[in-house]
Design a protein that fits this description.
The protein is α/β, with parallel strands linked by helices and about 250 residues long. It has one domain: 2-enoyl-CoA Hydratase, Chain A, domain 1 (Alpha-Beta Complex), CATH 3.90.226.10. Helices cover about 45% and strands about 15% of the residues. α1 runs parallel beside α3 and α5 packs across α6. The chain is globular. Bound molecules: coenzyme A. Coenzyme A binds next to α2 and β6.
Length: about 250
């Protein structure tokens, strides 16, 4: 079976590539688990920068909606999702992302934890949580307003307005836009630039800039609790069933 997450190390850089292109890189529990492990073990493995990549045309379509439906029936969010969110927030290693195509839900909110983001000119970012009967996750209710201001964050996280690459650049979600076939190379180049810097100074600067990690983790946990309640709601279940049963 093809690996759904491909992890490779070279030159102190770990690339973590989501690899479920036939499902637009919708994330399943084993994928969250593999990504959390890749992030959690990086520092101990001598890694100095992690690069998160997707597939052509699909960075990540968010959580697998079949699994959300199962979670709605079980009445709780899968523990692997939470482990991944904590790993993202607690990563002592700088995170870079390269986004091609669609970045939906966690595909967009994970970028709020990244230190540098490269996007293809074809990228599309969306966070349709409320339309799905849910609430924002991954610390985005804290990090998105901090990054782009309350009103732009409200339009994205609550009203579900998508952003194209130009809008993502304008609000600071993305550092640089390149042709889509240049995204991975440009993200690796950024990682190389970071690992060439004095590592202790990078780590200390990053800690100062991010503020207390436990504030972010506490917000993630608060969101997870509400998210679990929303998953059990009729609104959410109806939205998941509509996607799963859609006719095309
Ligand atoms: N969960 C499960 N399967 C998903 C998925 C998801 N989040 N997103 C896409 N897929 C699957 C589709 O069901 C389809 O599978 P099929 O070929 O077996 O029917 C395949 O991926 C391709 O998706 P498709 O919708 O045909 O691609 P598209 O290019 O027209 O649209 C998206 C891409 C990402 C815009 C669209 O798939 C989408 O909106 N997905 C749902 C995103 C979402 O709401 N995520 C949760 C956020 S909290």
């Amino acid at each position: 079976m093809t690996d759904l997450v491909i992890v490779r190390d070279a030159d102190s850089i770990r690339t973590v590539r989501m690899n479920r292109p036939d499902k637009k890189n919708a994330l399943t529990a084993p994928m969250y688990r593999a990504m959390a492990r890749a992030i959690d073990t990086a520092a101990g493995d001598g890694i100095r920068c992690i690069v998160i990549l997707g597939a052509p045309g699909a960075f990540c379509a968010g959580n697998d909606l079949h699994e959300f439906l199962a979670a709605a029936k079980a009445g709780m969010l899968d523990g692997d999702v939470v482990t991944f969110l904590h790993a993202l927030a607690r990563s002592p290693v700088p995170l870079v992302a390269g986004v091609q195509g669609d970045a939906v839900g966690i595909g967009t909110t994970l970028l709020l934890h990244c230190d540098y983001v490269v996007a293809g000119t074809d990228a599309r970012f969306s966070t349709p949580f409320v339309r799905l009967g849910l609430v924002p996750e991954a610390g985005s209710s804290l990090l998105a307003p901090r990054l782009m201001g309350h009103r732009r964050a409200f339009a994205a996280l609550v009203m579900g307005h998508g952003l194209d690459t130009a809008a993502a650049l304008a609000c600071g979600l993305v550092n640089v836009a390149v042709a889509r076939d240049q995204v991975d190379a440009r993200a690796i180049a950024a990682a190389n630039e970071i690992v060439a810097l004095p590592p202790e100074a990078v780590a200390a600067s990053r800690r100062l800039m991010r503020g207390p990690v436990e504030h972010i983790v506490a917000r993630i946990d608060e969101e997870v609790s509400l998210f679990g309640e929303r998953l059990r709601s009729g609104e959410a279940r109806a939205a998941f069933e509509a996607f799963v049963n859609r006719k095309r």
